[in-house]
């Protein structure tokens, strides 16, 4: 592998914790561009959080509101082992609270991704659903997980794609 002079981004944490208990603390911060990295590149996400304890949900919401940060995007609810159990998009904190009420004993952590370009939310949600599908608890509006490919129309118009087709037998519609 070729060597590079580019340095990775560094984390700059806010000194005060947002939330904490006997096991975890939650802090916020910003990634600072490393030297040698090209600047001005558009970001996919403006804010992200991964596997934060559900007990910190209100504290994170309040911190984002105080900072004037948009709380729309893609979210994931995880069980106690860290496996994704639900994926969705929309108002992050409202939807995560509602999901916790439905699966109160099962869910322990949450992740979310505030997407810079809102028109990409659906594609990111679709990708996460397809990656985690065997573990997800779908509501009636979502498609059930299987080994069959999803509907290519779930992605944005203008996207090039490849899809598989069955040679013989019964056609499976998606």
Main traits of this protein?
174 residues; alpha+beta; four-stranded antiparallel β-sheet; two-stranded antiparallel ribbon; 3 helices; 8 strands; globular
Order of strands, widest sheet: 5-8-6-7
| Count of helical stretches | 3
Shape designation:
globular
SSE succession: EEEEEHEEHEH
The total beta strand count reads 8
Strand content: 25-35%
Report the helical percentage.
10-25%
What would you say this structure looks like, in words?
- By secondary structure, this protein is an alpha+beta fold.
- The chain is 19% helix and 26% strand.
- It has a domain of 116 residues.
- The protein is built from 3 helices and 8 strands, in the order βββββαββαβα.
Topology, element by element:
Elements: E1 10-13, E2 19-20, E3 25-26, E4 29-32, E5 45-53, H1 57-66, E6 72-79, E7 84-91, H2 92-102, E8 107-115, H3 121-132
Antiparallel strand pairs: 1-4, 2-3, 5-8, 6-7, 6-8
Put the structure in a nutshell:
The chain has 3 helices and 8 strands, in the order E-E-E-E-E-H-E-E-H-E-H.
């Amino acid at each position: 592998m070729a060597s590079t002079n580019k340095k990775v981004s560094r984390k700059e944490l806010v000194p005060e914790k947002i939330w904490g208990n006997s096991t975890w603390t939650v802090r916020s911060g910003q990634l600072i561009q490393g030297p040698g990295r090209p600047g001005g590149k558009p970001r996919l996400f403006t804010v992200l959080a991964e596997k934060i304890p559900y007990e910190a949900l209100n504290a994170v919401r309040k911190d984002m509101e105080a900072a004037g940060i948009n709380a729309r995007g893609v979210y994931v609810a995880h069980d106690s082992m860290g496996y994704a159990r639900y994926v969705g998009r929309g108002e992050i904190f409202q939807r995560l609270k509602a999901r916790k009420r439905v699966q109160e004993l099962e869910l322990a952590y949450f992740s979310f991704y505030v997407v810079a370009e809102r028109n990409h939310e659906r594609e990111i949600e679709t990708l996460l659903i397809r990656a985690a599908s065997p573990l997800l608890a779908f509501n009636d509006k979502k498609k059930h997980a299987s080994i069959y490919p999803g509907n290519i129309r779930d992605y944005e118009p203008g996207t090039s794609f490849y899809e598989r087709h069955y040679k013989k037998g019964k056609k499976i519609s998606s």
